[in-house]
Amino acid sequence: MLLDSNDAVPGRFEPLDLRELIGLVGDEELGWASRAVQLAAFDRDHRFCGRCGRASQPSPVEHARLCEACGATVYPRLSPAVIVLVERGDMCLLARSPRFPPGVFSAIAGFVEPGETVEHAVERELAEECGVTATDLRYAGSQPWPFPHSLMLGFTATYAGGEVRIDGTEVEAAGWFAADALPPSPSAGTIARRLIEEFAARAGARSGRRSG
Ligand SMILES: [Zn+2]
Question: Apex CA 208: angle with CA 141 and CA 108, to 5°?
């Protein structure tokens, strides 16, 4: 059951927004909390069949809702999204959305669209948001992102071509940043932060080898 922000919680508990748990608890705990919130929200938002409009029931055997009237079964929705850090020597491509906290830049991200491969989603987002192309796409891990039901698939890639240009709406600034002069990153515990920190560590190790 989902609590409303006005609901009382027992004395020794404190209500926290799911986002506030990022970086505060480990990946496993965050995974359980994400799962609980997404499943509860799924039940709340799918009480009626989307096909025929009658009341649906929770399935007794799996996380799904059934419509006895028309036979439809619906499952909790997951929306895959890609996030990619493009490297160009000791620089990486970062952008900022107007929704970010002031000064924060992140890797390029966006949702996978129906009918699209993950690889194509990366290529399209880079083209749409920044006007660049990349090659050598490498999978770097994933993170449940339950706001409200995304799954972030993280990648690194190598710059291939194009000059950075932005649309000014989804992305308000973008550019190449040197590993030793990075702008503020998204919160600790996010896959975006991890991609950026790993890039900085790799670049630092390279420059250490050069100067040593
Ligand atoms: Zn139905």
Answer: 35
Distance CA 181, CA 197 (A): 12
Which residues have CB less than 5 Å away from ligand 1 (the ion)?
A: 49, 51-52, 67, 69-70, 72
Residue pLDDT, tens place only, 145-201: 999 999 999 999 999 999 999 988 889 999 999 999 999 999 999 999 999 999 999
For 159, the domain range is 79-211
Let me know if residue 67 belongs to a domain: yes
pLDDT digits (tens, 9 = 90+) for 59-98: 999 999 999 999 999 999 999 999 999 999 999 999 999 9
Distance from Cα 34 to the centre of ligand 1, integer Å: 28
Cα(179) to centroid(ligand 1), Å: 54
**174 within some domain:** yes
User: Looking at the structure, do residues 42 and 96 belong to the same domain, yes or no?
Assistant: no
Same domain, 109 and 58: no
Q: What are phi and psi of 98, to 5 degrees?
A: -60, -15
